[in-house]
Structures are given as structure tokens and as C-alpha cells.
Design brief:
Blueprint lengths: L8 H10 L4 H19 L2 E4 L1 H16 L11 E5 L26 H8 L3 E6 L31 H8 L5 E6 L5 H7 L2 E4 L19 E6 L2 H11 L17 H4 L8 E4 L1 H5 L4 H16 L3 E4 L6 H6 L1 H12 L13 H12 L2 H22 L4 E4 L9 H8 L2 H7 L4 H6 L3 E8 L5 E7 L5 H15 L8
Parallel strand pairs: 2-3, 2-4, 7-8, 7-9
Antiparallel strand pairs: 1-3, 4-6, 5-6, 5-10, 9-11, 10-11
Helix pairs in contact: 2-3, 5-6, 7-18, 12-13
């Protein structure tokens, strides 16, 4: 079982269903690996060893009894520690919520359980899912290079999956927090259409920007997890009441005649050469498949949304923390406290002005997408920077804004994205890019992502 932890989620699930592998043995293997490696990688906030072992035994008994088995049967999966888990602390990366124990599961957690997943642990995140970890919490370490940034708030999920400490994990994305750790750790990440996945039972960073999605090592795995968590939820009034396509089937379907739009000025102006070349190479792979690469222009409103993202996020974050802040300000780290203070000072008219800009940007982006099937763009302005570089950037508004150039606009617009690995650079760090689809275009993104994955061939694993 030496390399079992790097097997795909989907292949592992098939082995479990066939009886070639037991969930109990697999869970024991994964727990042992986490215990061995996570003392240095710090990807988990909390391990659920006893409940995971019990669930694995139940699932093995179900298989032996010939009961119907779910699409995630027996597979150890991790969830970001802002997703409520019944009877288990859910700290959201904070000290102020360290003792908060919800009495129900988030909808996505319940859906994972119903699909047969073994919830093996809660992954570490930045404080309140914003830009920095609480000073008293050890941040996750990038398994490719411990001195490099592992991505922002869903970094624990990214590190756990990349390092073979989970077969898949849930992350959230408000300004890039599925895409950044997926890019930095060489993973597939899907940020679904806003409303495609219920946010009920997820502690908010910013309600109108938050998205929940899967982070995995393959496109089929991400499709399998999305299949499970997508759909209408009566407990979330923003969830969309539309049928859920067969995303797993889409991962094995032939890519039809496709047009991918690229704004090369947007994708290359001031962007590191490795990042631009990775996108050009990805476009060349698609062109070799017969995909048409067409130049487009991203609506210019994205610049204001990027520059002022902190205003929307800050005001909505202040609402989310109203029960704790400012009464318990002494328990907050400086970065999250500064965001909430900003939010408390924002005039409502400024927030409303940004909502107008959001609506214009969304409408104009829809016009661009009416002429192509999807867009291609970088995820980050550079390959994963050093932790020290990101700490300096966290204190500089202009640098922080620049870094969310390719992520925040699509959180505002709500369009779905898929982050895809694109090999390693000369320093052995992951390269990546993203595809952006029309509203509810996840199946199309999965199809294109799987085609690119097949063209890329096997991906490397970090030196863990």
C-alpha cells in the first residue's frame, strides 16, 4: 500500500466497491500517513480518527451486506474547518471560535457522508478564511517547498490532497481560496457557479462572494465530488434550483468543437514569464486537439472590482462576525481585525456602487462568453512566491490587489472556474492555469479539463 495514498479518488472508490480494498484498511493507512507527515506539513486543524474508523467499518459492512454504495464509498475526504461538523469543533481558523461546536452538519458535509465518504479530518485555514493565519496558529506548509506559499485560506485542503494525506478535500473561494492553493500545490480545483453548491452551515467570509468546491488530484475526482455536493438546498435561499448534470460522465466524454477565449493583455501584463508560458503551452495543447483559441477582451470593470474587493469583503465579513467583534477583538489577529474595521467604516453607498459595478461586469462578461465556450487565464500573477514575500504583500494594498487580478472578478460575477495543473517550472514548483465558463457551465469545464489532463500525462507528486 506504499503509494496507495496517491491513487486517484475515483480509482480508489472503484477498488473499494469491488472489494479489492477495505475502507478500514485504507483509513488506517491514511491516518498513519497523516500522523507521520502532518506534524511538519500542518494541513489539519483536527483529525477525526475514531469517527473515521467507525464510519469505515460501517461502510465495509454495507458492502459485505450487498447494500447500495455511494459515489464516494469508503474514501477518506477532508473538509475545510469552516464547514460545520455536528458535535465537532469548527474554529474557522480563529481563536474566538475555538470552542464552537455546531449541532448540525453543513449541507456539503452531510452530502459527503450520504455519498459514503469517510470524513478523516478538518483542514487548517487562515483566520476567518481571509488573508493570514492567526499569529498563534501554525500555517500549512507547501509540500513542494516548505518556504513557498501554499495558497491562502484553503491551504490546508490543498496541502493535504497534494501530499497524499486525503484523496480530496473541500475548499472555499471568496477571492481565490480554491484556486490559489490548487495552483500552488499542483491540484485540480473547481469553483462552481455561485449557488450551484449550498453554503448552508459554512461560516462566511463574505456571503455574496463565497463559493464551496472540491480540490483533488484529477479532473474526474473533482467531478465526482462536485456531483455529490451540487444541487438545490432549501436551507440556502441563494442555491440554484436547476438540474445537476452528470459531471462524472463529462470527464470521459470527447471534447466537441470548442472555442477558448484569451485576453493576452490581461493574462500577461506584469505577469511572471513562467505563468504566461504555462498558459501559452496549455493553449497550444488545446489547439493541437482542434480547439480554436480566439483573442477576447475582459471587461475593464474587473480593475475596480480587484482594487475595491476589500470593501465588499470587509463589510460582509463585519456582518458575519457581529456576534464576536468588536466585543472580543483581543482574540483576533491583526489582518482579520483590520478587514473587519474597514468593513465597519465603509459607507453603504460605496458598497452599493460596487454592486452596480459587479452587475455591469457580469453582464459584459456574459457578452464575451456568448462568443466563446470558455475563457483561459492564469490563476496567479506568479508561481507560488515565498512565504516571506506574501507576508510583505499582505500589508500592501496594491500588491494584495494585484494578486487577486485573476480570481476576485469571477467571485464577483459568480462564473464557474476550473484550475488545472500544467507541470512544474525549472525550480520544481507547480505551474497552473484556469478555465472560466458560462453560468452553470461546469460540465463543459470538466470536459475540457479532462482533455487537457490527458494531453499533459501523469503529474508529479511533491517530495514528501
Amino acid at each position: 500500500m506504499s503509494e496507495l495514498h496517491y491513487q486517484s479518488l475515483s480509482d480508489t472508490c472503484r477498488a473499494l466497491k469491488s472489494g479489492a480494498l477495505s475502507s478500514t484498511a485504507l483509513t488506517e493507512h491514511m491516518v498513519a500517513r497523516i500522523v507521520e507527515h502532518d506534524a511538519t506539513l500542518k494541513s489539519y486543524a483536527l483529525l477525526l480518527i475514531e469517527s473515521a474508523a467507525q464510519r469505515a467499518e460501517e461502510l465495509d459492512a454495507d458492502r459485505a451486506a450487498g447494500k447500495p454504495l455511494g459515489p464516494l464509498h469508503g474514501v477518506p475526504i477532508a473538509v475545510k474547518d469552516l464547514l460545520f461538523t455536528q458535535g465537532v469543533p469548527t474554529a474557522s481558523g480563529t481563536l474566538v471560535m475555538a470552542d464552537f461546536v455546531p449541532d448540525y452538519d453543513a449541507t456539503v458535509v452531510q452530502k459527503l457522508r450520504d455519498a459514503g465518504a469517510v470524513i478523516i479530518g478538518k483542514t487548517q485555514l487562515t483566520e476567518g478564511a481571509f488573508g493570514a493565519h492567526h499569529p498563534q496558529i501554525d500555517p500549512p506548509k507547501n509540500p513542494y517547498d516548505r518556504n513557498r506559499w501554499p495558497g491562502v485560506s484553503s491551504s490546508g485542503s490543498g496541502v493535504a490532497v497534494a501530499a497524499g494525506l486525503a484523496f480530496g478535500a473541500l475548499g472555499t473561494d471568496t477571492g481565490g481560496s480554491i484556486r490559489f492553493p490548487s495552483a500552488a500545490c499542483g491540484l485540480v480545483g473547481i469553483k462552481p457557479t455561485y449557488g450551484r453548491v449550498s453554503r448552508y452551515g459554512a461560516f462566511a467570509l463574505a456571503d455574496s462572494l463565497d463559493h464551496i468546491g472540491p480540490m483533488t488530484r484529477t479532473v474526474e475526482d473533482a467531478a465526482r465530488m462536485l456531483q455529490v455536493i451540487a444541487g438545490k438546498d432549501v436551507n440556502d435561499p441563494t442555491s440554484l434550483d436547476t438540474p445537476v448534470p452528470n459531471y462524472v460522465a463529462a470527464a470521459s466524454e470527447q471534447l466537441p468543437a470548442t472555442v477558448i477565449g484569451v485576453d493576452w493583455e490581461y493574462a500577461s501584463d506584469g505577469i511572471d514569464a513562467d505563468v504566461v508560458q504555462a498558459l501559452r503551452d496549455a493553449c497550444a495543447r488545446f489547439a493541437d486537439m482542434g480547439v480554436e483559441i480566439r483573442e477576447v477582451s475582459i471587461p475593464g470593470e474587473y480593475k475596480q472590482l480587484v482594487d475595491d474587493w476589500g470593501i465588499t469583503c470587509g463589510l460582509e465579513c463585519a456582518r458575519a462576525h457581529a456576534d464576536y467583534y468588536p466585543e472580543h477583538k483581543d482574540l483576533y489577529g491583526p489582518v482579520l481585525a483590520n478587514l473587519i474595521d474597514l468593513g465597519l467604516s465603509v459607507p453603504e453607498e460605496k458598497y452599493a456602487e460596487l454592486e452596480d459595478v459587479r452587475n455591469v461586469f457580469r453582464a459584459r462578461l456574459n457578452e464575451v462568453l456568448s462568443g466563446v465556450d470558455m475563457l483561459a487565464a492564469p490563476c496567479m500573477t506568479s508561481v507560488a512566491p515565498t512565504v516571506a514575500e506574501m507576508e510583505r504583500a499582505a500589508g500592501a494594498d496594491d500588491q494584495r490587489a494585484a494578486f487577486i487580478t485573476f480570481t476576485a472578478p469571477f467571485d464577483y460575477s459568480g462564473h464557474p472556474t476550473i484550475t488545472l495543473p500544467a507541470g512544474l517550472n525549472g525550480q520544481g514548483m507547480p505551474l497552473s492555469f484556469q478555465l472560466v465558463g458560462p453560468t452553470l457551465g461546469e460540465a463543459m469545464l470538466v470536459r475540457a479539463g479532462a482533455a487537457h489532463e490527458q494531453a499533459m500525462g501523469a503529474t508529479a507528486h511533491p517530495p514528501v
